[in-house]
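EI: anyone free to look at a 138-residue chain?
SC: sure, send it
EI:
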Amino acid sequence: MATSSAVSRPDAGAADLSPRARWRAFADAVRGLVHLFSGQVHPWIHLTATAAVAGLALWLGLPAGDWCWLVLAVGLVWVAEASNTALEELADALHPGAHPGVGRAKDAAAAAVLLAALAAASIGLLVLGPPLWERLTS
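SC: here you go
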């Protein structure tokens, strides 16, 4: 099992703002991103949706203001998915067996991803819908 180097460093709690410490923190985040995609289906679904939204927005030639809404919506889903994965990993490490409280926590984290995805889909419809309709019907 790969672990974050933050776990093994004795100074993990200290406020070290050196370039070396910042680089280690960045490397930890990249390792987390790699873990997010390894062996899980949902991040790949989100990546496909992200690419589809970006491609459609490019094809429609959306203005910067509309892109801001799309980036915010997509980012919300990614943050929720990463948080859900982190909570699941932590819960499994602390309590590997079945436990009703752990199950409820995992369900709530999954619900957060669902709510973020529904909000993103709503924003996508509001932002992409009218120009797409105009492009398809003109």
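EI: Helices lie at 5-8, 19-37, 42-60, 64-94, 100-137.
SC: 👍
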